[in-house]
Amino acid sequence: MKLETIIGLEVHIELRTKTKLFCSCPVKSDVSANTNICPICLGHPGVLPVLNEEAIKKTLLLGLALNSEIGEISRFDRKNYFYPDLPKGYQISQFFLPLLKGGFLEIENDGKRKKIDLERIHLEEDAAKLLHGEKGESFVDFNRAGIPLIELVTRPDLTSPEEAKAFLEILHLVVQYLNVSEAEMQKGEMRCDANISLRPKGEKNFSAKTEIKNLNSFKAVEDALNYEIKRQTLLHEEGRPPKTNSTRGFDEKKKITVLQREKEESHDYRYFPEPDLPIFEMKSLPFPLEEIKNSIKELPLAKKDRFIKTYDLLEEEAKILTSDLALADFIEKIISEIKTESEEDRRKFVKLATSWTINRLWPELVKPENFAEFIILISQNKISSASGQKVLEEMKKTGKKPSDIIKENKLEIIGDVEEIKTIAGKIILENKKVVEDFKKGKENALQFLVGQVMKETKGRADPKLVQEILRNFL
Ligand code: ZN
Ligand code: MN
Questions:
Q1: CA of 12 to the centre of ligand 2 (A)
Q2: Dist CA 85 CA 87 (whole Å)
Q3: 215 CA from centroid of ligand 1 (Å)
Q4: Partners of 73 in the beta sheet?
Q5: 268 C-alpha to center of ligand 2: Å?
Q6: Which of 166, 266, 392, 453 has a 20 to 30 Å separation from 87 between CA atoms?
């Protein structure tokens, strides 16, 4: 039996706002438990929520960047359920009128691009965090309660665990590019529930699905889905495919999913409109939507394509450079420093800048203009790449300009051919055995001699020139 896999994701992302969604408590991690709290986010009776404008802006920004549609009106609703991390007994969420509907995110998997359609994007408050002790005791940290949380739901468009992982990776990068969230998964700032079902190929109806809850790393999503495919395939082959929807957890150590509950129908959250917050009309928002539209920056895949096209980079180089916005900005600043008429020089400069940047990832350590000067010196052969390593180390340590470092440490390349010839002659006399080997046809022997000359010059010679001189001598 040929089966096909159907996956949909539900992603929660904490927003990087200054304050929480309905109160003025700061949004900050790395503080002691239960310090960023107030009567509003603790759900005391009689308090009223006040909506955070910045959270609306960031949600709209992400939605617009993902081509979602903004409705005419939006509203918050109460999602009622009891749990110790939810002091009010309900979560203020959006059910009937989400901020954004539809849209898509383009992913790249195995060199192929694919648009994954979105169902909706809405805004809600995060719940508190439960911590469980070793003796079975539990603690509640309310710092997280009330932090603005985006919920993004995809259509069931994903067909493999690899695609699901690719979707999350690119989404993660997009929210970082837009400065919507840092989305650090290990801190729980981005969390994912994955829905998965299998059905015989050609079958139109969906089978019962499994929802895997609270996956908090790309790897966990991929592993959990792979396990679920194996488990459900077996059930199909045994002629007893899942009949009811179920919720499962993922055991990361054993790499298996574990049944949490099985249900005929979805949980009844008794959604109803939040009476303490007004309906808001999109055309009368306190800020112009145009302003948000104009602040959408170039997204990662578009940037990658442009890097390949404009700078003539390899796919892999462009991928690394765009995997971090700071790095991408850094390399572009460096490239903008090059002033040359010749296309060939420009190309050479970009190549060098790319490889030096990729290999060492300097953005937070070195000023772009210093780095650009450094690349110019390398490309003009003013220093050898061996000296280059030393210069970079010094730039990192002292923040000085490369030209000053080179002067102070006498790292200029030896331009005087006679000087290199003298040293090469000396090395040849000192290594008679190696010279014999070379004459017998051992190419490696020459490399050894080049190495000796480089050592003698403390890395200040151009290895190509050294090799040429040695070869002429021999
Ligand atoms: Zn508060
Ligand atoms: Mn939610």
A1: 7
A2: 6
A3: 27
A4: 281
A5: 14
A6: 266
Say if strands 73-74 and 77-80 run parallel, antiparallel, or are unpaired. unpaired
DSSP string for 270-317 = --EE-TTS--EEGGG-SS-HHHHHHTPPPPHHHHHHHHHHHH---HHH
190 phi and psi, to 5 degrees?
-135, 125
For residue 116, what is the enclosing H or E element?
strand 112-125
Which CATH number does the domain 417-473 belong to among 1.10.287.180, 2.60.120.560, 1.10.10.10, 1.10.10.410?
A: 1.10.10.410
CA separation, residue 238 to residues 113, 299, 397 (Å): 35, 46, 65
Closest CA to 75 of 274, 284, 288: 274
CA distance 423 to 400: 32
Contact indicator for 267, 34 with CB cutoff of 8 Å: no
Per-residue pLDDT tens digits for 383-424? 887 788 888 888 878 888 888 988 888 888 887 888 889 898
Strand partners, 154: 118
Q: Is the pLDDT of residue 30 over 90?
A: no
* Predicted confidence (pLDDT) per residue in 45-103, tens digit: 999 999 999 999 999 999 999 999 998 999 999 999 999 999 999 999 999 999 999 99
User: Which two three-digit tokens encode residue 365?
Assistant: 């350590």
Ligand 2 midpoint to CA 126 (Å): 8
Burial of 8 (0-12, 13-18, 19+ CB in 10 A): buried
The model's pTM is 0.83
Distance 60 CA to ligand 2 centre (A): 17
Q: Are 123 and 11 within 8 A, CB to CB? A: no
pLDDT tens profile 333-385: 988 888 777 888 888 888 888 888 887 666 666 788 888 888 888 887 788 87
For the chain, what are the domain ranges?
Answer: 3-294, 300-409, 417-473
Percent of the chain with pLDDT over 90: 61
pLDDT digits (tens, 9 = 90+) for 218-272: 999 999 999 999 999 999 999 999 999 999 999 999 999 999 988 755 668 999 9
206/199 Cα distance (integer angstroms) = 7
Contacts (Cβ under 8 Å, ≥6 apart) of 155: 8, 116, 117, 118, 119
For residue 464, give Cα distances in angstroms to 384, 418, 446: 10, 15, 12
Put residue 188 in one of left, alpha, beta given phi > 0 → left and psi -120 to 50 → alpha. left
DSSP-derived letter for residue 206 is P
- For tokens 């490239």, the residue is 335
CA–centroid distance, 151 to ligand 2, in Å, is 5
Give the pairing type, strands 210-215 and 245-251: parallel
Helix axes 325-337, 368-379, angle to 10 degrees: 50
Ligand 2 (ion): residues with CB under 5 Å are 151
